[in-house]
Amino acid sequence: MISCSSSPDSTVQENEVAVQPFYPKIQYSMLVNNLFSEQHRVKKNQQFGELLQGYKVSQAAWGQLNTLKRNQFDFRKVAVGNTYTLFINPDTVCSLKTLVYEMNQVEYVIFHFSDSLRLEYCQKEITIAEKNISGIIENNLSETISSQGISHELTNRFVDILGWQVDFYRLQKGDYFKIVYREKSVEGKPFGIGEILAIYFRHGDKDYWAVPFDQGEGTDYFDLSGNSIRRAFLKYPIEFTHISSRYSLNRFHPVLKVNRPHLGTDLSAATGTPIRSVGDGVVVEAGYNGGSGNYVKVRHNGTYTTGYLHMSRFGAGIKRGVSVKQGQVIGFVGSTGWATGPHLCYRFWKNGIQVDALKVQIPPAKPVKTEMMANYECSLNEAVKKIGLIANPIKNDLAAR
Question: Does 37 fall in a domain?
């Protein structure tokens, strides 16, 4: 902890006159000249009140802090490892002026302490820049993208867009891709992926394109002919990972030690990995059921139903009868029920019969409307131009060798 008996400014010798220009020091949109500051990270099991220990806070402010409602600030969500910064008045009692708690890379809350408490909710400035990436598949898509220091989020978005055209679990060595996308950054550090502006993927001897276009109902992705490449459902309910067991009518069960049908697809993932509903629908079952462990079943319409087994826990508010949206988190990966390790068993019903979720034929969304084709062709030409400016990774790979 700092000593508050001295001034943060440089001292001036006796009988010496020093005139120094004033340069405003701004942090978290606050003027912090003449204040001491300390930055820390929340430790394991550390309570919010412990962050203030050693500094003077008025009795009134303490009282207001202890009576804050959850919709004002939820102390349960103070997370281990998150950054907080203390700004302290340079007086003899170390009175605390403000505490800034960073909820994530973008959002933060300022606790202003004086005679009373005031909270201010803020966001850091987000910068968006257009980026591109290309790569050749050596082992798998995720490894190829992450080896270039790009967020795993880009892999997931790529797979979600082309998932029904390409089996990303059966890629061939030498397949390659080019992607144009927008990257979000804060204070010079990337933190998320914005819109994907164009995709070109060469798989085997076939080319795949994905071009974004909004017909008035939100952005969708289309091929060179204006056909939609989207389906009513996401291809995968969790982040892109590897398949540990496929749909089979005769599989050796690792727990029961007998051969029996396995009418689902097992996706390996770490405990706690979010599980998404692959489409809009209504939860028809949510609970614990023997070998299935914690599971959720979602009816999407009169034809399709999906199931998610072995969850460690359910998503917020997930129970029978609630409506869910495509991509909504309905639970988290676990190993409850008959499971030898953390994974998701994903099941798919068509007209009441379980089918292979990765092979079922789902009708595509509608193509670009005839009256919108001229506008789409402008978007298409721009996307093709941007892809064309990216060096072919195959040629670069050969040159490197």
Answer: yes
